[in-house]
Every structure is written in structure tokens, then in C-alpha cells.
Specification:
The chain is an all-alpha fold and 129 residues long. The protein has a single domain, classed as Substrate Binding Domain Of Dnak, Chain:A, Domain 2, CATH 1.20.1270. The N terminus is likely disordered. Keywords: Signal. This is DUF1311 domain-containing protein. Pfam families: LprI.
């Protein structure tokens, strides 16, 4: 189930990531859209990888009866993250820097989610869900 969610998440991002990286490398000081987009994709990938590691650590630390609740919450959050960022930047899809905007949004929401996962790690399931 967890792997299915991971593959689904990667499938949703793959087209944008591939488009952003096609023929371009991250050049931090460049103003060219393809370089800026590639940098945004790389930043998101690093943040998302760290997020997946933290999620795995939290899952291992939880009791067997807490894991299904976090798994359900994480899956819902992942769907909402993608929907929120796509909606937030729907009007920008034709822009050359759309991949940057999308991935910066995904990075921001992923970093915000870290606090929730840290709460799970240190305190278990939140009292009200």
C-alpha cells in the first residue's frame, strides 16, 4: 500500500520533472527558465527524499495500531499537496517557469509537513483527527 502511494506520487510528478530537466542542468546563477526549472526540481527532489526518510523513521517508531492512521493521513496529505500546488499554479501552466513554480510549491508544503511528522515521532497520533 505504501509503495503504491509512492509510485502514484512519482507518476504524478514524473511528467513535470522530465519536462523541467529535459536538456537542462541546474545552473544556480542562471536566469534561463530551463536552468531555473531544473534547480527547482532538484531542490524538490532533495526535500522530498528527506521527507520520505523521515516518514519511514516515524513509521518504524510508531506502535502497530498508530501506523495505519499515519499511513492514511500521509496518503491524504500527499494527494492534497499535489492538488493544492496544481490549483495554485494552474493559470501559470503555459509559462516557461511553471515547473519552477510547481516544484517550489511542492517543496514548501513538504517542508511544512515535516512539523506534523515530527509531532507523530515525538508524541504519537494527534489527539483530534
Amino acid at each position: 500500500m505504501r509503495m503504491t502511494s509512492l509510485f502514484l506520487g512519482l507518476a504524478v510528478l514524473a511528467p513535470a520533472a522530465a519536462w523541467a530537466q529535459a536538456g537542462a542542468a541546474c545552473v544556480p546563477d542562471s536566469a534561463a527558465a530551463e536552468h531555473v526549472n531544473a534547480c527547482a526540481v532538484q531542490r524538490f527532489q532533495a526535500i522530498d527524499s528527506a521527507h520520505h526518510i523521515l516518514y519511514g523513521d516515524v513509521m518504524r517508531a510508531l506502535s502497530a495500531n498508530e501506523r495505519p492512521l499515519l499511513r492514511k493521513e500521509q496518503s491524504a496529505w500527499n494527494r492534497q499537496r499535489h492538488a493544492t500546488c496544481k490549483a495554485r499554479h494552474a493559470a501559470d501552466e503555459a509559462a516557461a517557469n511553471w515547473p519552477q513554480r510547481l516544484h517550489d510549491c511542492l517543496s514548501e508544503l513538504t517542508q511544512e509537513r515535516r512539523q506534523d511528522l515530527m509531532h507523530w515521532l515525538h508524541h504519537g497520533a494527534p489527539a483530534q483527527r
